[in-house]
Amino acid sequence: MHMAALEPLGRDDPHLYEEMFGVFLESIPSSVLLINTDLRVILANRNFITKSRKSRQDVIGQKLGQVLPEAIIEHIDMARKVREVFRRNQPIRGNRMTYRAPGIPIRIYYYSILPFCRRGTVETVILLMDDVTEHARLSEEVRRVERHLASVVESARDVVLSTDPDGLVLTWNTAAERLTGFPSQEVKGRSLFERCVSEAGEELRKVFTQLREADTSQTGEWELITKDGNKIPISWVFSPMKDERGTSVGVVAMGRDLTEHRRLEMQLLQSQKLASLGVMAGGIAHEIRNPLAVCSSAAQFLKNPELAPGLREECVSRICEGIDKASSIIENLLRFARPSSGAEMAAVNVVDVIRSTLQLVSNQAKIGKIAILEHLPDEPIAVYANASLLQQMFLNLFLNAFNSMPAGGTLGVSLRCTQESVLVNIEDSGCGISPEHLEKIFDPFFTLSPVGKGTGLGLSICYSIVKQHLGNIEVKSKAGEGTVFTVQLPLL
Amino acid sequence: MTNSRPLVLIVDDEPDMCWVLKNLLGEDDFALRIAQTGEAALKFLESESFSIALLDAKLTDMDGLDLARRIKAIDPWISIVMVSGYYYRDDVDIRAAMDNGLIVGFIAKPFVHSDVIEMLNVCRQTKWEHQGPALEEALGPSAAWE
Questions:
Q1: Cα(B58)–Cα(B80) distance, rounded to whole angstroms?
Q2: What's the CATH number where A393 sits?
Q3: Is B23–A369 a contact, with Cβ atoms under 8 angstroms apart?
Q4: What are phi and psi of A312, to 5 degrees?
Q5: Best of A284, A287, A288, A290 to mutate (most B CBs within 10 Å, chain B)
Q6: Cα separation of A424 and B93, whole Å?
Q7: Do both A267 and A223 map to the same domain?
Q8: Do residues A247 and A269 both lie within one domain?
Q9: Is the domain of A359 the same as that of A309?
Q10: CB atoms B16 and A291 under 8 Å
């Protein structure tokens, strides 16, 4: 084959092949030993001489057992194998051996024993040894790193998974198994979107499209469905996985279970809500005790059997009115304390929410000598929101405004719409906020109220509620003149 | 005491409450003036001298205790009773107002009618005791409770 191409050269010089053979033998990065039927080495190339740290005399003419360490010869039964090649005229390929020569680090070889056959008999065999020490070391290193990475991923308490660019799951760590109840093998090769609630799945499809196009990570909250059918809120970071050419080969997803976080958040919201109910207690007491007093007195008048018929009728109707009045005040409070809508996001008429919240603080306004000026449209304005959270936010802003007007004043509430959002202005004629405090007012526990009067959570909770609704809150204030909060919420 | 009806000022922003007090006290035993704001109450004081004032704690234009102070500044002899759903009997502000003599009594809403009547009778008495001798000295015996 290749020889044919070389043949013309050989015509001029019969030693050419011999010389070439010598050059090849000396330059190839493998150790070559030629062994005769006595199992003596009759030829060793430079590579072997160097690696074995022997001189040529120590090798040529020596029995194989003296050239290679006895341990190896016996361990891999080299002599028998060589004899077998002589007898069968069949090569033995691709075996591994570990070679220890004195004073040098351990080496690992792949060896082959090839028969060299002339005129039907195997005259010599060639022992070919490739040093794969480095190769073996590297692959061991690679395995170690792989094991390490795998244990990092497996030990993580967060969900760590990878998918192909279309969202088919490639890896699914223990945390993901534990959280969802789905073992890795049930999920691998299936779409990640199947594991999400349907709307989340749709959104994730879009996220994956963006990931294919852009280099940046995508973050967000999407719920996973467990094997038992429960929904778990997860905060995700999706990052594109690119190969060395920059082509998108997949997606790495990290997810954190937000259940506990949500529970604490709900507790905080609830306790802040109860705190604001406490603030309103005075106003509520006053407002409820007035109709109660009227009812009580009217009933006492009715005890008099000689009461004039006109007054008797008046007493009865005032009792009925008084009871209605007191119970509607209580109902407003109940609605606030235990909202019917729960934690659901839905289409909400923001005008209604503002009106009912104003009603809730009307008692407080009355005793605080605060006039409420509302400029709200009659037609509904829909936003996608959690009504109860919105009410809590408005309540906090209203009570905050009241706090800034200890001697009474005016609370203006107005609303206007732009193309995409609704802007609610909450304006007070209070003491205002100085510029150095203005930037801190949304920080948790920042308060200008005396100890025991304010928790310092109201406005920070407003901020988080507005952000949760993908909106914005801004404040403008002039010390001594008043403050305007503007809440911007995206229109549905 | 028999031939005179003490002049009583009722101040409450709730018309219903005014209706109750008016019907309770009646025009036979007391002469009543009714004001729904602090300013209106002060206006009455410009022209008439009251024995007793029944004040609500929270008015639309001012605080009941502030109004009490302003009334006292005009007429130190008047007996002021706070009738309120906002405070309770042992409330710090109420105790302080009682201790320093700003108000002579406190009635929590809702109230038992006899308590109010009794309170007004005590006030009448108190006014007579406090005011009587002083005025007697100044004006003579018959002028004391006119």
A1: 15
A2: 3.30.565.10
A3: no
A4: -60, -45
A5: A290
A6: 38
A7: no
A8: no
A9: yes
A10: yes
B93 vs A: CB within 8 A:
no
| Residue A224 identity (one-letter amino acid) | L
Do strands A409-417 and A370-375 pair parallel, antiparallel, or not at all (unpaired)?
parallel
Per-residue pLDDT of chain B (146 residues; tens, 9 = 90+): 444 789 999 999 999 999 999 999 988 889 999 999 999 999 999 999 999 999 999 888 888 999 999 999 999 999 999 999 888 888 899 999 999 999 999 999 999 999 999 999 988 876 555 554 444 444 444 443 43
Within this chain, do residues A198 and A268 fall inside the same structural domain, yes or no? no
| Contact status of B117 with chain A (Cβ, < 8 Å) | no
> What is the pTM assigned to this prediction?
0.56
Q: Where is average pLDDT lowest: A283-292, A451-460, A461-470?
A: A451-460
Q: Determine the structural domain holding residue A249 and report its residue range.
A: 156-257
Q: How confident is the model at residue A122 (pLDDT cuts 50, 70, 90)?
A: confident
Question: Pick from A257, A277, A304: which residue ends a domain?
Answer: A257
Q: Does the pLDDT of residue A101 top 80, yes or no? A: no
Are B30 and B120 in contact by the 8 Å Cβ rule? The answer is: yes
In Å, what is the CA distance from A284 to each residue of A331, A363, A366, A394?
12, 6, 10, 18
User: Which residues between 47 and 86 in chain B have a beta carbon less than 8 angstroms from any beta carbon of chain A?
Assistant: 57-58, 60-63, 84-86
Binding-site residues on chain A for chain B (CB distance < 8 A): 282, 285-298, 300-301, 311, 314, 318, 321-322, 366-367, 369
Total of domains in chain A: 3
**A96 and A113: one domain?**
yes
**How far apart are the C-alpha atoms of A360 and B131, rounded to whole Å?**
46
Last residue of a domain, one of A257, A289, A312: A257
User: If you ran DSSP here, which 8-state letter would residue A442 be given?
Assistant: T
Query: What is the ipTM for the molecules in this complex?
Result: 0.81
Q: Are residues A362 and A482 in the same domain?
A: yes
Is the CB of A297 less than 8 angstroms away from the CB of B20? Answer: yes
Rounded to whole angstroms, the Cα distance separating B61 from B59 reads 6
pLDDT tens digit string along A297-326?
Answer: 999 999 999 999 999 999 999 999 999 888
